[in-house]
Amino acid sequence: MLTHERRKLILDYISENGSASVTRLSELLGASESTIRRDLAGLAELGKLNKVHGGATLVGQEYMNREDTINVKVQKNYEEKLAVAEYAAGLINDEDYVFLDAGSTTFLMTRFIVGSRATFVTNGVAQAHELARNGCRVMILGGELKDTTEAIIGSVAAANLQRYNFSKAFLGANGIALKQGYTTTDTAEAMIKAIAIEHSFVSYVVTDGSKFGRVSAVTVAPVDTCCIICDRCDKDEIKRKTVVKEVSKEDGLHDNS
User: Fold this and answer.
1) pLDDT at 257 (0 to 100)
2) CATH of domain 70-255
3) Is the pLDDT of residue 238 over 80?
4) d(CA 115, CA 132)
5) Is the per-residue pLDDT at 178 higher than 60?
6) How would you list the strands of the sheet with 19-21, edge to edge?
7) Are the C-beta atoms of 252 and 213 separated by less than 8 Å?
8) Buried b (16+ CB within 10 A) or exposed e, 186-215
């Protein structure tokens, strides 16, 4: 196969799927991995795709394969996350049965949940501590503790979570893209998020606008399974797929449902 033919097929595949690994492209095209890497490097130089470790993504998407600690994540885009957190907390009623995951924006939500009579279930150690200190009824999942995010994960946590049915769930995401949906870096955390969505009447992804167009290793769920609360969303294709609420301290609430 000629180089230009192979590169066209690579672009066609990534355009359809959003991303591709070197290994997958090598299998599809019957070319060596070293040849595929050269093709990706050449296409990246032309601005046709983003070359990332182990593969490539569409232009306009960013691939993330590492995760910061919860303390670092809270400080990134802090003001935007705080506005989103305040609005999201205001959606919780006293009769709600709520799942709160271990994300940075969900942690900030706890600042605005004081004396609520709702029942909270969380896999976030920091979230559980703050909710209890604020006088809320909170249950924390048992299981394995993930050091970086202080999240309770694993098969024991997943089995515990299966017992609950929530009126509302609030979740974080490392990336949001139309093709890949809501993504995170860790399979075990993705499983917890997916179960929470499945067991909730309505689910919200709470995030700052930097997460749109980013892709992480593991898909949690399709875009249309959750509403999104964010400070800004410039992805019209996302707005056409699900309910997106944009919140800012300056402009107030914009409903793009």
Assistant:
1) 42
2) 3.40.50.1360
3) yes
4) 9
5) yes
6) 19-21, 55-58, 49-52
7) no
8) bebbbbbbbbbbebbeebbbbbbbbbbbbb
CATH number of 3-59: 1.10.10.10
Reference 99, options 148, 55, 140; nearest CA is 140
Given this model, what pLDDT does residue 78 score? 82
Q: Are strands 97-100 and 166-171 parallel, antiparallel or unpaired?
A: parallel
Q: Is 39 helix (H, G, I), strand (E, B) or coil?
A: helix
- 237 CB-contact burial (10 Å; exposed 0-12 / middle 13-18 / buried 19+): exposed
**Residue located via tokens 């355009």:** 15
pLDDT class of 253 with cuts at 50, 70, 90: very low
pTM over 0.90? The answer is: no
Beta strand extents in 12-165 (DSSP E only) = 19-21, 49-52, 55-58, 62-64, 97-100, 119-122, 137-140, 144-146, 151-153
CA 44 – CA 80 distance, rounded (Å): 32
pLDDT of residue 116: 96
**Residue 63 pLDDT:** 56
239-249 burial by CB neighbour count: b if 16+ within 10 A, else e? eeebebbbbbe
The pair of structure tokens assigned to 125 is 């150690």
Residue partners of 37: CB distance under 8 A and separation at least 6: 22
